[in-house]
């Protein structure tokens, strides 16, 4: 059962990656309407597959049905990354980025599922701006 869950979770994330990649490729940075639609799509995806984010939104009494514009999307506080393993989906990370912790408090962490996808996505986004 657990193996089947991981296969399905991986399949969902692969489909989402392709969808987001297509959205980025077709995104006209001067078209604020399509940019807003992409942000809303990403919000709904994160809400559905990121339990930490979903619980945070629920604590604010915010659900995807209530968010009609990107300006209404709640940002997850940085402290969440210090006290929780914030991940979209269930996966074993291939890379973990950590903050420097220079303030003497807990360090925040960013878990990466697929390093090559992360690099490719970063390059795609950088080319847009």
Architecture overview:
This protein is mostly helical and 129 residues long. The protein has one domain (2-128). The protein contains 5 helices and 2 strands. The protein has helices at residues 2-26, 32-49, 51-59, 79-83, 115-128; strands at 95-98, 109-112. Strands 1-2 form a two-stranded antiparallel ribbon. α2 (32-49) crosses α3 (51-59). It is globular, with a radius of gyration of 16 Å. The termini are far apart. The relative contact order is 0.13.
Mean pLDDT: 79
Described by strand count, sense and barrel closure, the largest sheet is: 2 strands, antiparallel
Order of helices and strands: HHHHEEH
Distance between the termini: 43 Å
Radius of gyration from CA coordinates:
16 Å
Major sheet strand order: 1-2
Compute the number of structural domains.
Answer: 1
Number of strands: 2
User: Based on CA inertia axes, which overall geometry fits?
Assistant: globular
Helix content: 55-70%
What ranges have pLDDT less than 50 throughout 5 or more consecutive residues?
Answer: 1-9
List the helices and strands and how they pair.
Elements lengths: L1 H25 L5 H18 L1 H9 L19 H5 L11 E4 L10 E4 L2 H14 L1
Antiparallel strand pairs: 1-2
Helix pairs in contact: 2-3
List keywords for this structure.
129 residues; mainly alpha; two-stranded antiparallel sheet; 5 helices; disordered N terminus
A few lines on this structure:
This protein has 129 residues and is mainly α. It has five helices and two strands; from the N terminus they run H-H-H-H-E-E-H.
